[in-house]
Specification:
six-stranded antiparallel sheet, 2 domains, 21% helix, single chain, 4 helices
Length: 177
């Protein structure tokens, strides 16, 4: 099952930090977005096959979050979810915001549906997939930009950051009009 265009963004816009993680996972799955559990306060998949285990099966999702209520929510990117994400990193000396700003001035980042602040102060820019085109994940580490497409995944709100390392919650900060 492939999620419809824009569904990830539209579901995330209905949520806030007060949503229980299990309810948020069920809401995404009910809308056709496959999910999988990741370690509490982290990004590491909590299943044997990571994003390959993502599902919309509500019974499986209930079982996962009953076993680990604090599990963060992973969503595979690309065709499976209908969303690809530009991940703007902020790690030490790397500030991907400058690279994203240069790309924006050049007209290269138009078309995003949702912007989400990440725990390190960076952001995820959500875009719809391009139907019929494989969009593989890639990194430009020195520029502080990653692209999460087919073969990748993201952690979505209201997943919790590690309180001792990451000062910002995952919250949406902008939406397209």
């Amino acid at each position: 099952m492939i999620a419809e265009h824009g569904v990830v963004s539209s579901v995330l816009l209905r949520m806030n930090a007060a949503w229980p993680l299990s309810a948020a996972a069920r809401e995404l799955a009910s809308a056709g977005v496959p999910v999988f559990p990741c370690s509490p306060w982290g990004k590491r998949p909590a299943t044997g096959h990571g994003f390959h285990d993502a599902t919309t099966n509500l019974d499986q999702i209930e079982a996962w979050w009953r076993q680990s209520p604090g599990a963060n929510i992973g969503v595979p990117t690309g065709a499976a979810s209908g969303a690809v994400v530009v991940d703007v990193d902020m790690h030490g000396p790397v500030d991907g915001r400058a690279s994203f700003d240069r790309a924006a001035r050049a007209g290269l980042v138009e078309g995003w549906e949702l912007l989400v602040r990440t725990p390190t102060g960076g952001m995820h820019a959500y875009y719809p997939v391009t139907p019929g085109t494989e969009q593989r994940s890639w990194q430009a580490a020195r520029a502080g930009i990653d692209f999460r497409g087919d073969g990748g995944y993201i952690i979505v709100p209201p997943s919790a950051p590690a309180p001792h390392r990451e000062p910002h919650p995952r919250v949406w900060i902008g939406m397209s009009t």
